[in-house]
Amino acid sequence: MPLNLSAKPFAAPHAPPAFPSAPVDYSYLRQLVYEQSQNVLDPSRDYLFETRLAKLLRNHGLSHVEELIQLLRLKRDPTLERSVAEAMTINETSFFRDSRPFELLRGELLPPLIEKRAMMRSLRIWSAACSTGQEAFSTGMLLLEHFPQLAHWNVRIEGTDISNEVVHRCQSGTYHRIEMNRGLPARNIVRFFDHHGEDWTVKPELKKLCNFRQANLCGNQPPFSPPIDRFDVIFLRNVMLYFSQETRKKLLAHIHRLLAADGVLFLGSSEQPADPSIWTPVLAGGTCYYRPRQPS
């Protein structure tokens, strides 16, 4: 059959115009995250917005980050703004992460603290920025396994995090097999968890020691207030990596007021107090912890 060369060539349908046509204003998002969480995000990490906000975009029927920015600029939405900040928060953790602080607590720090609290029979521990709860539950396992004398004490482990999503996971106490294989001894799995398919759930004995709730460490209303609240041990590990020096100083001054005079503060291995005049560093067991002291 001869070709009809006079026929009009097939016209492909017009492709939709690319969106966005203008560069994404990441500076707007960086400022929003700072206002909500005090995290200072470097422009070199702007690419993270695309991946970490993907779920939030889908939930709001959006396709591009620029659409989200336009929506936020159109009308202030505190819930959406907080969701953006939460999505940009790093939630990397595991059971008994960096085991040295836990070994130090078991062998050197908790025995004298427990002896001093024998009259009050009370012990309070705070896991700040607790992420999905492994740090708090690890501490609870340590207490139950090595300090049976606390069975009739008022023991409370508080866990707080800026992200509602991860706090809900803490409260459920359920972890996938992959999470269970990261740093958790087999004996602890058998004693403290129930098995359900690919998931493991914290048993009531451990769960009742821990209380989790959403809180912003740098918000206008901190999660705890002195002198009502006092803690014997505070974990503030790998929290301040992206805080400004001013924010670190303010936060650690508040932590100082919350920590008992003979209490213990653990920071991340690469973190130091912003104001060394109110902290005494102690190097032991291959790690460093801090004791509060009065300013000179």
* Total of helices: 12
Major β-sheet annotation: 5 strands, parallel
As a percent range, the share of helical residues equals 25-40%
Shape: globular
Classify the secondary structure makeup into a structural class.
alpha/beta
Strand percentage: 15-25%
SSE series: HHHHHHEHEHEHHEEHEEHEEE
Read across the widest sheet, the strand sequence of neighbours is 6-2-1-7-8
According to DSSP, the number of beta strands is 10
**C-alpha-based Rg, rounded:** 24 Å
Low-confidence stretches: 1-20
How would you sum up this structure, described in words?
The protein contains 12 helices and 10 strands. The protein has 296 residues and is α/β, with parallel strands linked by helices. It has a 5-stranded parallel beta sheet. A 3-stranded antiparallel beta sheet has the order 3-5-4. It has a two-stranded antiparallel ribbon with strand order 9-10. A hairpin with a 2-residue loop joins strand 4 and strand 5. Helix 1 packs across helix 5. The longest helix has 17 residues.
